[in-house]
Write a structure and sequence with these properties.
Elements (H helix, E strand, L loop, with lengths): L2 E9 L5 E8 L4 E5 L6 H16 L7 H10 L7 H22 L3 H5 L7 E9 L2 H13 L4 E6 L27 E4 L1 H19 L4 E5 L6 H11 L6 E3 L9 H8 L4 E3 L10 H5 L5 E2 L9 H13 L3 E2 L9 H13 L6 E2 L5 H6 L5 E3 L2 E3 L12 H4 L11 E4 L4 E2 L2
Parallel strand pairs: 4-5, 4-12, 5-7, 6-15, 7-8, 8-9, 9-10, 10-11
Antiparallel strand pairs: 1-2, 2-3, 4-14, 13-14, 15-16
Helix pairs in contact: 1-3, 2-3, 5-6, 6-7, 7-8
């Protein structure tokens, strides 16, 4: 068996997605996701110019060897562009192997550790009352865990508050939209949000919150401490993880569980955080961390220090990654939770999939491979649209972390 072709498909059914389709000489194929939100074309060029030519003629069953070739063979290794390209190849090869053998991907990984995967949705609103109403809507839909984000008085374009409900997508313009950030106003407001939510819903539902890298370690520690009475499932991305030492200060001052990692590309981005038990959940993704081959290594390493998985699952990854992630989630022993932001109906039509939602859980389905396909004819009806993520400035104009 040899790889005969590999093609990159770019489509925008509501937002941009980059998909790699690998086909063998006998017509079998697998697909992988290579989407990098706001920088999609960079991965397209990397794949088409530097990766695809090296795949032709290779044995697609040698997944590990191909992964090592693409990683070790790239002197300029790591980084979001390289690792997403590798992830697309890796995911497509796992999908292809599952289809060839006629088994679902979770069986290739070692079989299920659970029947269903607990997921959390995104509830957001312009104010606390609106956010609380959205939390209630998610609970009525059967969710057991909900991430809650609220507008902050005096802050223009607060993170996590979308232009609509259920399909939050921050990449909104060809050039970055500028937003304003105020840490003091946010630190005053965030505890009030969870005061209201616990008063209304009690401690039955799991509640999560995303800070999105906005705070210094000391500010993050203050927020974590103030939220301790509300027993959050986790507090996400409290401070930029480039400074892994910063999480030590946060950990020393709060028992609120900490999650980080949606922008991690390799084990080396989170090695110290895990080994020193400075986080409780690692949020690396199939598409961001070099595919299933490398994500398994991160999860196995994390399990030694009782750190659990919590894979990123916003709309900036395609149903292809969600399908692969759910098979990974069904297998991984140290599973924590899976983010699940629903895609638009147009996206679901372009990417027909076997996974389904029921009573707060996602089920990967039993289709061979990862269970997600692409309708190329329909995808062609949604051409690429240049869109970038916003940027943030402090009130005095200083650039800040978005």
């Amino acid at each position: 068996m040899k790889i005969a072709s590999a093609r990159v498909i770019v489509t925008c059914p509501g937002r941009n997605f980059v998909t790699l389709k690998i086909e063998t000489e006998d017509g079998a194929y697998g697909i992988g996701d290579a989407t990098l939100n706001g920088r999609e074309k960079a991965v397209v060029a990397y794949l088409e110019d530097h990766v695809v030519p090296t795949l032709i003629g290779r044995d697609p069953r040698r997944i590990e060897d191909i992964w090592q070739y693409l990683y070790r063979g790239a002197y300029w290794r790591r980084g979001p562009v390289t690792m997403r390209a590798i992830a697309a190849v890796d995911t497509a090869l796992w999908d292809l192997k599952g289809k060839t053998l006629g088994v679902p991907l979770y069986d290739l990984l070692g079989g299920k550790s659970r029947e269903g995967v607990m997921v959390y949705g995104h509830a957001n609103g312009d104010d606390i009352e609106q956010t609380a109403d959205e939390v209630q809507r998610y609970l009525e839909l059967g969710y057991r865990a909900v991430r809650a984000q609220s507008g902050v008085p005096g802050v223009k374009g607060a993170y996590g508050v979308g232009r609509g409900q259920m399909f939050y997508e921050p990449a909104d313009a060809a050039l970055p939209t500028e937003t304003v950030w105020s840490t003091p106003q946010y630190l005053d407001h965030a505890p009030k949000l969870f005061d209201a939510l616990r008063e209304r819903f009690g401690f039955g539902p799991h509640l999560l919150h995303d800070v999105h890298h906005r705070l210094t370690p000391l500010e993050a520690a203050q927020l974590g401490k103030s939220l301790e009475p509300h027993r959050l499932f986790w507090l996400e991305d409290v401070t930029p993880a480039e400074n892994q030492e910063g999480f030590r200060l946060v950990r020393q001052h709060t028992t609120t569980p900490l999650a980080v990692g949606e922008i991690f590309n390799t084990l080396w981005d989170c090695k110290d955080l895990i080994q020193e038990q400075l986080i409780d959940y690692v949020r690396a993704t199939v598409v961001g961390a070099g595919g299933l081959t490398h994500l398994r290594r991160i999860a196995d390493f994390a399990s030694v220090w009782q750190v659990r998985t919590g894979c990123h699952g916003a709309t900036d990854l395609s149903p292809v990654t969600m399908g692969a992630a759910l098979h990974f989630d069904a297998w991984v022993p140290n599973f924590g939770i899976q983010e699940y932001m629903r895609h638009t109906p147009e996206t679901d039509a372009v990417f027909p999939h076997a996974y389904r939602f029921e009573a707060g859980l996602l089920y990967p389905g039993d289709a061979p491979g990862h269970g997600v396909d692409i309708d190329e004819a329909l995808a062609a009806r949604f051409p690429y649209e240049p869109k970038q993520l916003p940027v943030a400035r402090l009130e005095d104009g200083t650039m800040w972390n978005w």
